[in-house]
Amino acid sequence: MIITVTLNAAIDKTLAVPNFRLGRRHRSVEQTSMAGGKGVNVARALKVLGQPVIATGVSGGPTGTRIIEQLTDEAILNDFVRIREESRTSTAVVDPTTGEQTEINERGPTVSPAELELFVDKLLYLAKGAGMCVFSGSLPRGVDAELYSHLIGELKSMGVAVVLDSEGEPLRIGTRAEPTIISPNELEAEELVGHEFADDEDRVTGVHEMVELGAQEAIMTLRTGCLALLGDEHERTLVSARLDPDEPVSKVGSGDAFLAGYVAARYTGRPPEDCVRFAVACGAESTKHFGAGVLDPREAERLAGEVEVSHLLATARK
Ligand SMILES: Nc1ncnc2c1ncn2[C@@H]1O[C@H](COP(=O)(O)OP(=O)(O)OP(=O)(O)O)[C@@H](O)[C@H]1O
Ligand SMILES: [Mg+2]
Predict the structure, then answer these.
(1) Domains in the chain, ordered, with CATH?
(2) Eight-class DSSP state of 140
(3) Of ligand 1's atoms, which has the minimum distance to the CA of residue 254?
(4) How far is the CA of 25 from the centre of ligand 2 (A)?
(5) Which of 22, 167, 261, 270 shows the greatest Cβ crowding within 10 Å of its Cβ?
(6) pLDDT tens digits, one per residue of 217-226
């Protein structure tokens, strides 16, 4: 079983608004509303990829009820802790004329210490039957930035492989707890290592630094694929996977689909280069669909054949 954790679950509303401009009144030509939050998107993609997955986290109020109902309607196994405050609604406006996308995320609920304790108990219970656990997204208000770090330690001691896809403080502190995999995008990676990447050499240095900070494997997603330092301290492989970017329908959640592809391939024991190849294909395929974590698995398999994977030399660093 794979667990996905979403502490900022939401209803994700996506609106297609041609010629979107600030300060104007618009009418959307298409709209979708689905359960979201990064971990939920990962769970949706994992389910469609045929992997056993359960989504957990916290959800509250009428929006929280809708999140759980929608997950259940999609037949995504879920076990969330109900909280007192209302879960958020996140809105993305996609302009089909430019492909540009604007996101507005509500602040979200505060989680009380007692609610958080219930969640931690639930997670540790679920983890007894899990092989992998994915922590995705930001932390809600009221939750200490050390939470992921603490949970990574607990789950790893139970033999669960742990994936962390977050940003800022929770990612920085969480990486020190030695998660199995981190998968920031380029901006998040720059912030994590503390410098900008001007060229490929900087990017290669960046993934090495992420491993030095504690991650066993570091995967940085790029617009054109990813750069990953995989393996463990015995043997490390530096892999670059490339696929020419195509005209997206919506890029919302492409990183989540990417991660689901990687986790699905790894969970089924595929070799590292196949895992990144499939991940890039899933990320790219998901951009052809409106809705985060939505992808066509057969198309993803086909696209995987088009991904160019190359092995770079993993430089020995202190
Ligand atoms: N226009 C595109 N065409 C093809 N593939 C794309 C396109 N945009 C993104 N991707 C793929 O999606 C994957 C994830 O991209 P990105 O770095 O944007 O993730 P992210 O910023 O973490 O996204 P998210 O908002 O889901 O967190 C990458 O592997 C990239 O190759
Ligand atoms: Mg991301």
Answers:
(1) 2-21+28-312 (3.40.1190.20)
(2) P
(3) 26
(4) 30
(5) 261
(6) 999 999 999 9
